[in-house]
Amino acid sequence: MCIKEKYICPFTDFGFKKLFGTEPNKDILIDFLNELLKKDTGEIIDLNYLSTEQLGRSIDSRKAIYDIYCENRIGEKFIVELQKAKQNYFKDRSIYYSTFPIQQQAKKGDWNFKLNAVYTIGILDFIFEEDKSDNKVYHHEVKLFDKNTQKVFYDKLTYIYLEMPKFTKTENELETHFDKWLYVLKNLENLTSRPALLQEKIFAKLFKQAEIANYDTTEYAEYENSLKVYRDLKNTIDTAYNEGKMEGKVEGKIEGKIEGEEIGLVKGARKTAKKMKQAGFELKIIAQVTELSEKEIEEL
């Protein structure tokens, strides 16, 4: 096999699951979560992987969203997902899927409604449109908040989003363990060796697991296919999104900025759907990414 890069891209389905979603590499996920959530929860000692089917997603729908669903020893739930490209109503979708771990805690008979905490962690390979002018904030932590008291109203529901394109620190600028984690996620596939500052044991294991030369022919083929899907889908969605945005601005000069941008986004979604349809993606996947109905997609 011809190897171009030394390490896998963690933004592929294969890469994400290889590093974070396998039992032998559970300690890698635990280290990442402990670093991310140390202010909110006690140290995570162990995790149990749960089926993502419990989140109400079909196998087909997860080609645009890679996710891991797990719980710790005290029953707290963690949804760790990697979103590859911009998507209409992303925040709505994220909130919606977080309700499944809440509903699953319901007990038959006499139940006092006590809930265990639910954490949704989104590693985003894009920037929120509404926050694009603020390059300093790339780590968002959201809870139910009381505007009057300026305090957290409910601390058992947490959403954390990492806008990876905004993280631009170089190796020499890394100060914390959290910095190192983001640096690895952002730059892994472009590195040729483990950086000198990343000498922790957990990173030594991560880089070993990420080295493509260690994979057999089957694993390498799976990764190459996963990488192609990632690049094709991201390029298709980003191109159509930008085209739709430009059309929205032109339309906005005539019909009003807000209305024009909405028209542009709809056109962009249709262009995305058409390109994905031509590329052979299934209707369910196209509908998941574009928010168009399968009937609309069939008519394109």
TrEMBL record:
Pfam families named in the record: PDDEXK_2 (PF12784)
InterPro entries registered for this protein in UniProt: RpnA
PANTHER family tied to this protein: PD-(D_E)XK NUCLEASE FAMILY TRANSPOSASE (PTHR41317)
Name of the protein: PD-(D/E)XK nuclease family transposase
